[in-house]
């Protein structure tokens, strides 16, 4: 099940470190090449020699090797190690290391590699129940998940301290299963591909205080950018105003209005292998936004807002054909298939992702999505309700197949 796969295992300080020995055994038994890096505290629980024997590879536990004067590769070892695996699993991941990953600390080989690697990172948070339930740890984990880290949920039960609750090292079987899923969906099949993604809403100024906007959270576009980066692509993400963390290894450009998004997209779309417009671009903007706040007294109660059309970014890209595969989204509340097909054709797209608001389904802000992919050859693919990350991967599969 892990045949030909390269797994890097990071081990941090905690009594559960000994359980990672079984993990190494399972990975090796499954056919994987395994390398282990440890934090200095982890070595207090289990000797590097144990992991070296089980993994059949040398184990690094110190950024600075003791014989650094004789080793010429020491300066780049963290980069070489970071570039080596298909996936980087940190198990057990202590509260301390989770906190360091959240803030970009690089003081141990384990956190340094997390900062340097481009491959998917999987965490198995393991700690005492109170530490796991602490708001700071919860917030750190939420931030890391938003940035694209995978998390194996810890088990519930009795801890070495005698306390009971969540935070126990997950069953070996459940980590192995999750690793299989991540590895099966994380081919480096988009390596060197240049992908442009847009996300979020746009805000069209009425005056310096007010704007016309929409309910887009940006989660779908961010999930596409995140998934593409994990598959090895060079990703640029142009986003309207959202409250989301930038995914790992993604170049982010923030814009506000449809015109700003148009300018940014046109500046970055040239020679992209794939462009996916997931942004909910406003179709209208005030014709002449007021330079000062509009006062009730000055307008006799209600201002007379004159609107004009914003530029259609996707249609312009479809006309200019300056990039490779071009995909858009269609958000419909009625006649969804018909409208999506019309958009596909009129905007000259390779495929369109239909997001239907029919049947009262919640789309905005949700972590899951139900979409249909329609392509220009008339092929239709209904995807079951799944996480936006999974939907993102299916959309990227479609783009890859058309490259
Ligand atoms: N789009 C765009 N520029 C706009 C409006 C939309 O690039 N000014 C893109 C969106 O990013 C999306 C696709 O066009 O990928 C379809 O957007 P949607 O709002 O569903 O359709 P519209 O073309 O705006 O048509 P309507 O609002 O009338 O349904």
Compile the SSE list and pairings.
Blueprint: E1 6-11, H1 19-29, E2 33-38, H2 42-45, H3 48-55, H4 77-83, E3 87-93, H5 95-103, H6 109-116, E4 121-125, H7 129-133, H8 135-146, E5 150-151, E6 155-158, E7 164-168, H9 172-184, E8 194-199, E9 204-205, E10 211-212, H10 219-230, E11 234-239, E12 250-254, H11 258-268, E13 274-277, E14 284-286, H12 296-299, E15 307-309, H13 313-320, E16 325-332, H14 336-346, E17 351-356, E18 368-369, E19 371-375, E20 380-382, E21 386-387, H15 388-402
Parallel strand pairs: 1-2, 1-3, 3-4, 4-5, 8-11, 8-13, 11-12, 13-16, 16-17
Antiparallel strand pairs: 6-7, 9-10, 14-15, 17-19, 18-21, 19-20
The structure holds cytidine-5'-triphosphate (CTP).
Question: How would you describe the overall organization of this protein?
Answer:
- With 403 residues, this protein is α/β, with parallel strands linked by helices.
- It has 2 domains: 6-187, 3-Layer(aba) Sandwich (Rossmann fold), CATH 3.40.50; 194-289 and 301-402, Rossmann fold (3-Layer(aba) Sandwich), CATH 3.40.50.10300.
- Helix content is 34%, strand content 23%.
- The chain is built from 15 helices and 21 strands.
- It has an 8-stranded mixed beta sheet, sandwiched between helices. A 5-stranded parallel beta sheet has the order 2-1-3-4-5, sandwiched between helices.
- A hairpin with a 5-residue loop joins β9 and β10.
- α4 crosses α6 (109-116).
- The longest helix has 15 residues, at 388-402.
- It is elongated.
- It binds cytidine-5'-triphosphate.
- Cytidine-5'-triphosphate binds next to α13 and β16.
